[in-house]
Each structure stands twice: as structure tokens, then as C-alpha cells.
Hints:
single chain, 170 residues, 5 helices, mainly alpha, globular, 59% helix
Amino acid sequence: MSVRAAFPWLVRGVLGGIFAYAALGKLADPAGFAREIANYQFLPDYAQHVAVALPATELLAALVLFAPDRAWRRAGALAIAALLVVLLAAVTSVVLRGINVDCGCFGAGSGEVTWLTVLRNAALLAAAIYLVRLPDSSGESVGGAAGGVADGDGDDVAEAGRPARSRVDP
């Protein structure tokens, strides 16, 4: 396997590992994580709901990064990117408002939110966007000229404006 072919798997491994680890830390103590969320002073009435939904979503998205189908892997990367946009906004808001709060990123006691937390989340977002925009085997990236999802893995994913080809197995 070439470095070029291995790099996306390395990025998936790092990103998926970080999100799975973060999710498991939060799932281990949902009450503690809910307190961390409430400390952000951003919709504190929903902290208990977020404390359950966020880690479950993080874990699912992390696992989907390793799905055999490219469209599912791309969906996992897109879900992580969307989560990171929200998380990046939350930690940036806390830093700008001068609120001294623990991150809660990996569960209770994850350390104080600082500009380093913001930079870490921005780097993770860049990695997720890289995976979303990763060219398929035909060289087209998402949103490229071909449109649709052409993943080159032999399944029948419809391209933009064209029905999926049906495959007849002998």
C-alpha cells in the first residue's frame, strides 16, 4: 500500500480513535458530562439531553469512518465535521466570553478550555473535511464535475441525474 493510499486510513484511524475515546469517556459519566455542558452557559436546560445524545453520535460517527462502503465513510466524516463546527463554536464562545470551564471533551475532568482547545478542534475539523472531500477512485472529489457519489467499490450508487445501474450477477 502506497503512502498516498495509506494516509486517508491513518487520518480515519486518528479521527475515529479520538472520537471513540471521547465518546466512551462521556458515556462513562453522563451526569458529570451534563454538568460540564451546563457550565458552558449555552442552552444549559438541554445539558442532560446533550450529555446522552452527543457521545452516542460521536461513537456512531467514529465507527462509520471504517465502514466498507465509501459513501458511509464519507457520511461519518461529514457527521464528525458537523459536530466539530458546533463544538468549535462552543469552545470559541467560552474563550471569548472569558468563562473558566473544563472542556468535557473526553468526559469530566478533561482540562480547561483554552485557545489550544480551539486550535485542536480546528485541526480535527480540517481532518474531517479532508475525508469528506477525499477524491474517489475516479479522481473526482465530492462536488466535482461528475456529481453524485462515484465510489468505485462496485456498488450501484446513483450519480446526479442518473438512476443507479442494476447489476446482474451470473
